[in-house]
Amino acid sequence: MNNTTIHALDFDGVICDSAVETAITGWKAASQIWQDMPNSAAPQSLIDQFRLVRPIIETGYEAILAMRLLFLGESCTAIYSHYQAKTQQLLEQAQVSSDDLKKLFGDTRDHWIANDLPDWIAMNPLFAGVKEKLQAIGQAHNWYVITTKQERFVKQILQANAIELADQRIFGLDRNMSKPEVLKDLLITHPDQPIEFVEDRLPTLLNVQKLPELSKVELLFATWGYNTQEDKAIASQQGFRMLSLEDFLL
């Protein structure tokens, strides 16, 4: 990283390994909707399976649906094969909307944080070396977070790791902006500086790649994040710059 390049970083799967916390929050929230799910600790076996299906999830609240499917005995393969249909069916059966789930997911996290912040932080570890890297460039203010996570949760995790980032440099779910829209704004804000976008989700990078107006943004595929071997192969074929955690930390 250097001070002339603007670095736009995804959060979950690039900065933070939040899969376990997301699974637990999803379980807690799901148990409030479906009474047959025990209001107890999420089974470790389902948390382990959740990590395998995590690459298909775009926004955190979908963990509620994923944990429900896993509880019902759906295999990871079945979830990948029919994800949209299966999640839509759950929404219709429970008579809830995605907005309902977003609020429930956020409220469930807020309750956990209010009751045991250290435990919540512990379930959201940063990837090895990332804390030190972001601390080192923090004074330069040449990086942004672009995420589908609610911004207050990003702020709490960064603060807990003594990483300074101004609020206006965190673009989260609250802004109702897609990642391509945020990147377009950054191109306007920084017209004379190169922009690199580091993202671990292949569909997100493919969506950015489709837009001619974002052709100046260099797209980096975070291989350490929530993606599959198939994703890695496609990302390489599409010409994305393949970025390992070791290279990211240089």
Automatic annotation (TrEMBL):
GO terms for biological process: DNA repair. GO terms for cellular component: cytosol. GO terms for molecular function: phosphoglycolate phosphatase activity. InterPro entries: HAD-like_hydrolase_sf (IPR050155), HAD-like_sf (IPR036412), HAD_sf (IPR023214), PGP-like_dom2 (IPR023198). It comes from the Bacteria. PANTHER family: PHOSPHOGLYCOLATE PHOSPHATASE, SLL0295 PROTEIN. This is Haloacid dehalogenase. It comes from Methylomonas lenta.
